[in-house]
Amino acid sequence: MQREPPLGPQNPRWSETSDVIPMFATLVWKIELEARVREAIGAQGRSDRALETGRYHLWACGDTIRASLLGSKSIAPGRPSCHSIIGDEAPNFSAQTTEGPIDFHAWLGDSWAILFSHPKDFTPVCTTELGYMAGLKPEFAKRNCKIIGLSVDSVADHERWAKDIRDTQGPPNYPLIGDVDLRVAKLYDMLHPNASGTAKDRSPADNATVRSVFLIGPDKKIKATLTYPMSTGRNFDEVLRLLDSIQLTAKFTVATPVNWKPGGRGDHSTVGVG
């Protein structure tokens, strides 16, 4: 008796099963990886919150895993893939900003960029960060690096917020993205894909994970990411140092050791890697 070829595009019956197989594969990886998440977290006595975090990362990467199982690179529309990983292309998007509409990749051009996010307008820690970044803009410009912010509120709210910042620290001199529908925050995996509501429906605590920094290269690839809690202001001098290191190591085959600074000596020198 002749054996039927395995299920897959090479099987004549593939068209009959094309709807069933993806669902089956999705179920298989969910069962298997959920068990692994539970085992890993349970062995360490982690909380239910940690389990939920593990489930989120499992869900966010699910279609990438499913595509691998099926031998396909396609991702289902409307479902996330693991976009926010170093080395991946920064997801492109169109959005309204305080400096007008942008296509992110077109806006980036051949520059480096810092995209940094905020959970809500008028939050006190974020207010200090926006003002400080405005003061650092000339330093980033020297390094061919653009700055762009994002907050889960409307552009109109951003403009009112900018007035407060201007009165205390000087005005933000870079665009702020309006993300009322959470679209960009979800695209960069800062919010769970199933997060509901709009900006007006959500509190800063609901958006607490929207506290990230993405360093993006001229090739549109993510070079580094940082995420801070709402209670701790970000160190943007460190982000500038990080940019210096990444630009240096992109140009030369070196690595930068602990506490490296440009032009330093001794412990601040570079280390050859090849």
List the helices and strands and how they pair.
Layout: H1 14-17, H2 20-43, H3 48-60, H4 62-70, E1 94-97, E2 100-103, H5 104-108, E3 112-118, H6 124-142, E4 145-151, H7 155-168, E5 176-178, H8 183-187, E6 212-216, E7 222-227, H9 236-251, E8 254-255, E9 271-272
Parallel strand pairs: 3-4, 4-5
Antiparallel strand pairs: 1-2, 3-6, 6-7, 8-9
Helix pairs in contact: 2-3, 2-4, 6-7
Detailed description of the structure:
Helices cover 40% and strands 15% of the residues. With 274 residues, the protein is α/β, with parallel strands linked by helices. It has 3 domains: 14-70; 94-233, Glutaredoxin, CATH 3.40.30.10; 235-274, Antioxidant, Horf6, Chain A, domain2 (Antioxidant, Horf6, Chain A, domain 2), CATH 3.30.1020. Strands 5-4-3-6-7 form a 5-stranded mixed β-sheet. It has a two-stranded antiparallel sheet with strand order 1-2. Strands 8-9 form a two-stranded antiparallel sheet.
Beta content comes to 5-15%
Unreliable sequence segments: 4-22, 62-83
| CATH architect. name of the largest domain | 3-Layer(aba) Sandwich
Distance between the termini: 58 Å
Strands ordered across the widest β-sheet = 5-4-3-6-7
Mean pLDDT: 78
Structural class: alpha/beta
- The third-level CATH topology of the largest domain is Glutaredoxin
Number of domains: 3
Give the biggest sheet. 5 strands, mixed
CATH C-level of the largest domain? Alpha Beta
Total beta strands: 9
Rg result: 22 Å
- Looking at CATH, the homologous superfamily of the largest domain is Glutaredoxin
**How many helices in DSSP terms?**
9
